[in-house]
Amino acid sequence: MALVSPPCSLRFALCALPFALCPLLRAQGVPRYTAELLRCVGFEEEVRTTVDARRGMQGWQERGSRRGLLQLRARPDPQGLTFEAWYDSLKVEYTRPDSKLTPDTDGLIGGRWTGTMFPHGQAALAERPFIPPELAQVSDLSDALLDFLPPLATAALAQGARWTDSLGLDVERLLDSTAGSEQLHRYHWRITSHGGESPAVADTTVRIRQQIKDEGAMVWSVARGPLAWSREIQVTTRVSAGRRGGTPSEGRVTQAITVRRITNPAGCE
């Protein structure tokens, strides 16, 4: 089971907002990811995953963790904001009832994700790094950069105001704060997705139901952009028995993610 890649249904729709409007939006107080804010940044990331599974009367739990330093470099481009990102360091552990796995991550270190970053946080990938098979078994990070950054509202928010969209994203601006002379905005977001029911491939009478919850909070510097955020993603899946018999099963995957920006990452000018 993948350790850290949120399911495809978490991917937010691509923003149709022209990049030429970004300076105007910033002037209106709308936070946006830009090449200026992400020119040379590093993020310390920690992900803790818990898998609670049940098949019939048998239940078990699996746990995983990931700690790494992710570097990201963005630049303006005629078609928008482009970026490259890579891990400088990464440690992954995964514990099952019968074993503990510590896959070698050396084959991924330095491998590049490249693509286009949209002002609200969604990314479109052009290249993905090679994921060593031993690592992919417990943590397939191929799409890790698709929604690495928190989602942003597309309208200016006063303190205490909320914004929602048709995809189920709800963003609330919390009370501001300061750190020295730096002005900090704080945001809370929530996404709930009910995937409905769908048939299994092998037996169309077997129904699969999935629910996804994504909730987090972010500290945003007016001068520097994203400073830190915490996030919890919970995916619940239930599979019915079907007419051919079989055993119903259900599983819940919970990911607790914390990210902190590094002030002066190695390699910045």
Summarize the helices and strands and which ones pair or pack:
Elements: H1 22-27, E1 41-55, E2 58-77, E3 80-96, E4 99-101, E5 113-117, E6 123-127, H2 133-136, E7 162-164, E8 169-173, E9 177-179, E10 182-199, E11 207-221, E12 225-239, E13 249-262
Antiparallel strand pairs: 1-2, 1-13, 2-3, 3-4, 3-5, 5-6, 7-8, 8-10, 9-10, 10-11, 11-12, 12-13
Description:
The chain is mostly beta strands. The chain has one domain: Lipovitellin-phosvitin complex, beta-sheet shell regions. The chain is 4% helix and 51% strand. It contains 2 helices and 13 strands. Strands 1, 2, 3, 4, 5, 6, 7, 8, 9, 10, 11, 12 and 13 form a 13-stranded antiparallel β-sheet that branches. A hairpin with a 5-residue loop joins strand 5 and strand 6. 26% of the residues are buried.
The number of distinct β-strands equals 13
Judging from the principal axes of the Cα atoms, what is the shape?
Answer: globular
Rounded average pLDDT: 84
What's the main sheet like?
A: 13 strands, antiparallel
What's the architecture, going by CATH? Roll
Helix content: under 10%
Unreliable runs: 1-28
| CATH fold naming | Lipovitellin-phosvitin complex, beta-sheet shell regions
Structural class: mainly beta
Indicate the proportion of strand residues.
over 45%
Order of helices and strands: HEEEEEEHEEEEEEE
Q: What's the number of structural domains?
A: 1
User: What value does the Rg take, in angstroms?
Assistant: 20 Å
Q: Just give the CATH class.
A: Mainly Beta
Quickly count the helices.
2
Span of the ends, CA to CA: 40 Å
